[in-house]
Amino acid sequence: MLKPIVLVAILASVVRGAPQPDLIDLDVDPRIVGGEPSSIEKHPYIVSVQRNGRHHCGGSIISSTWVVSAAHCFLREFDAYSIRAGSSKRNQGGQVIPARKIILHELYLRQTLDYDIALIQLVKPITIRVARAIILAPAGYNPPKPGSIGVVTGWGALWEGGPLADRLKVVHVPVLSMELCRSRYGQNVITQRKFCAGYWQVGGKDACANDSGGPMVINGVLTGVVSWGAGCARPDGPGVYASVPSLRNWIRRKSGI
Q: Is residue 244 within 8 Å of residue 42, measured between CB atoms?
C-alpha cells in the first residue's frame, strides 16, 4: 500500500480526539509481500495509478472510462494523475491515460481511513485489448465470509521498507472475521466499510507500500480495495480493505456503473 507521509501524525490526532488505546504506537502502513510474479493477462482489470508519471497506487478498471482506487492515494493536484492499463510493468508499456476527474468519497476520513474509496474518470476510453473491466460485488453490508480467499495484485514493495516490484505480483490471503479484525485494530476503527484479510499468527503474505487502491478479488468479483494495515505481512497485523459491497451504491451514483 502507499505509505501516507502524514499517517503517524494523523493517528496521534485520532488518539487525542477520541481515545483509542489500541492504536497507540501502532506502526500503520497503508500498504505484495510473500506473493509470486504474475501478468496482466491473468489480471487484466488492474491498472497502475501514476502521479507525475511514476507508479503511485493501484486501481481497478470498472468500465472503459472509470477506475476505482483508494481515497488516501490522492493529494489535491488532481491533474498530476494518470493510469497505465494493459501492462505487467508499472512504468512501461500498456496505455497511459490522464485523469479527467477524481472523486473522493464525501465522508472519507483521513483520521481513520474510513470510506477510503475514490473514482477516476479518464479523459478517453481504455482501448488496449488486454485490459478488461472487473465485475463489482453487489451492494450489501455483510463482510466477505471468513476463510474466503482474496486475490490481491499490485506493484508495491517486495517487503516492508523494500523496493517496489518492477512486474506485477499476486498474493492470496484469507478473509478474517470482523471480530478478529476489530480485536486487533479496534471496534471504532473497523467499520462496516472495512474488513481484514491475512495470516493472523504467521503473517508472511500481504499487500505493502504502493499497493494501496489495488484490487482484492474473491471468486472473480471485486470485493475490496487495498487500504492500510500494521506494517506489511507482520504476524497479528492483517491488511485492511475498503469493502466494495458497502460502498457499491456510492460507486453507482457517482459513475453510473
A: no
Which residue in 43, 55, 56, 72 is the catalytic one? 72
> Does 206 participate in catalysis according to the annotation?
no
Helix (H, G, I), strand (E, B) or coil at 247: helix
- 27 is annotated as an active-site residue: no
* Location of C-alpha cell 495470516: 199
Closest CA to 197 of 163, 243, 251, 140: 243
At residue 201 the predicted structure's pLDDT band, cuts being 50, 70 and 90, is confident
Q: Band of the pLDDT at 28, cuts 50, 70, 90? A: very low
How far is C-alpha 24 from the geometric centre of its chain's CA atoms? 23
pTM of this structure? 0.88
Residue 210 CA to residue 32 CA, distance in Å, equals 9
The torsion of the CA quartet 31, 36, 42, 48, rounded to 10 degrees, works out to 30
| Catalytic annotation, pick one of 38, 48, 82, 116 | 116
Mean pLDDT of the chain: 88
Residue with cell 504502493: 210
Give dist(CA 218, CA 71) in Å, integer.
21
